[in-house]
Amino acid sequence: MNLPMSFVMAQAAPAAGQQGNPLFSLALPILLLVVMFFVMIRPQMKRQKEHRAMVSALAKGDEVVTNGGIAGRVDEIGESFITVEIAPNVKIKLQKGAVQQVLPKGTLKSS
């Protein structure tokens, strides 16, 4: 009975003596969070900032494409909604955030 107990103690002893610095054990998760920030979160924040700037710069007469793929010309701009004319005498009201892209002037006439 003495032999198996000493065998277990002999295996457990080196593992207890090899405890490293806790800073090294936290280095990998911290490194992963930093990489995830620069790969995923930062580019998304940059796109959101560009979209907000584009939406705030909308003016009457701009040609836009919505998230649903509807192209038209901005007719009215309100606080949070815009009116887009998609055909002669056909106007729709959209949220400003639904604008995906501002087209160069004259794009709708050429298509």
From TrEMBL:
It is a single-pass membrane protein. It is found in: Cell membrane. One of its GO terms (biological process) is protein transport. The keyword Cell membrane applies. GO terms for cellular component: plasma membrane. SMART domains: YajC (SM01323). Keywords: Cell membrane, Membrane, Protein transport, Translocation, Transmembrane, Transmembrane helix, Transport. Belongs to the YajC family. It holds the Pfam family YajC. InterPro entries: Preprotein_translocase_YajC (IPR003849). The chain crosses the membrane at residues 22-41. This is Sec translocon accessory complex subunit YajC. It comes from Dyella telluris.
